[in-house]
Amino acid sequence: EGAVFLRKKITLLRAFSLLIGSMVGSGIFISPKGVLKNSGSVGFSLVVWFACGLLSMFGALCYAELGTRITKSGGHYIYILETLGPLPSFLFLWAEFFAIRPANSAVVSLAFGRYMLEPFFAPCAAPVPAVKLVSLLGYYMVLTLNSWSVTWSARLQTALSIVKLLALALIIVPGMMLLAEGHTENFQDAFDKQSLVLDKLPLAFYAGMFAYSGWFQTCFVREELVRPERNIPLAVIVSVITVIVGYMLTNVSYYTVLGTQDVLASPAVAVSFVQRAFKSLISVVPVLVALSCFGTMNGGIFTFSRTLFVASREGQWPPLFSMIHIRRHTPLPAVMLMFPLVTAMVCIGDIYHLMNFFSFSRWLFIGLATLGLIVHRHRHPELHSPFKVPLFVPVSFTIICLFTVAMSFYSDPVNISIGCIMVLSGFPVYYLIIHRQMSNRCHYLTHKLQLLLEVVQQEIKTY
């Protein structure tokens, strides 16, 4: 009954929850170890955390302007397509689907499984097969919810955002209390230059930026936002400032309670923190952290399905994935497509190798998207944008992103080379397939799947 299209159901509160829920996830509970390991000392690791927050704010402001200038959903993909052209946008889509997004989802899923099982096996580590099984079950639950209802996915995100902030508060408060009592011994010689290794700093930034990643999520659902010209910049600025403050206080709390060696030796930093500082909550905090990861999974599936939806609508992905369920009004085929790749990566993946593997490709294309903002401004000076950032913001952010990507080849050549090969493998696919008409057999298969899944093309343009 009525037209089939994606409704505008993302209010300002839901946009704020989507950003908070996507940023505050497994990263702050996993990444402190990676940042400390690659920065070399407590002081430099805190500098890296603050620098990553500032860099995230620059990127978020650039994307807020892009979200007001370009009215389509799709995030990185649509911005690269509209500013730099179809080839780089397809290479992003190719890398995002086969490397970036499944690896990212696998990292968050594995963190969910590890923290969910931690109270049942403490003080021992949870068995790896059990962690992977629970990780997959959590991912499948989120996948099912996103296939079922946009409204309930958004409501879950709002509820879990509150849980995430509560989890951070439970870490911050006892740490600040101990710090106020004079427990500063772990901050002695905080800036030990002897342990600083410059060629490892890009990996420290990757770990830190992974914790902040998610500041771009509202741009993926631009067509479903209520009053996007106002709500995108407002939600971005408030949420990123909130997360920067929360992350800095959380890391100070970690280092107040745990020494450098404790952080490096811990498979789950938040759990080790609670064991030392707040034993009465030893079984509560891991569950809160797991729920935080659950919210990040929900936000990731919610937004990336829109990228596949838009790419299909633009003719760079099979047409089935631009279809919407006739009753649920969800992009069902696009939501379900990530299922096999994430399953495979969870089964075979290691968190820290996966993190380096997808970070190269992600930051390469984010840098290209903000470069596209500079190009778009130059090509369309007459275009009025309701939100505009100073030019030095996209210029500095783009330079830092591309420089970090280049430096990472020296830091982790194996995983970065795999990511580079994954991106370059999209070239022959683009020239052999995208410019050619689909065969009748492909149209026949699309039609059969359309009947099976009860999906149709969007009937109203929302951009």
From TrEMBL:
Lineage of producing organism: Eukaryota, Metazoa, Chordata, Craniata, Vertebrata
Any single Pfam family the record assigns to this protein: AA_permease_2
Swiss-Prot/TrEMBL keywords: Membrane, Transmembrane, Transmembrane helix
A GO cellular component entry from the record: membrane
Superkingdom in the source lineage: Eukaryota
Entries under PANTHER family matching the protein: AMINO ACID TRANSPORTER, CYSTINE_GLUTAMATE TRANSPORTER
Gene: Slc7a11_0
Designated name of the protein: XCT protein
Signal sequence range: none
Main location, first listed in the record: membrane
Membrane topology label: Multi-pass membrane protein
Molecular function (Gene Ontology), one example: L-amino acid transmembrane transporter activity
InterPro entries the record matches: AA/rel_permease1, AminoAcid_Transporter
TM ranges: 12-30, 42-64, 76-100, 120-142, 162-180, 200-220, 232-250, 281-304, 332-354, 360-377, 389-410, 416-434
Localization per record: Membrane
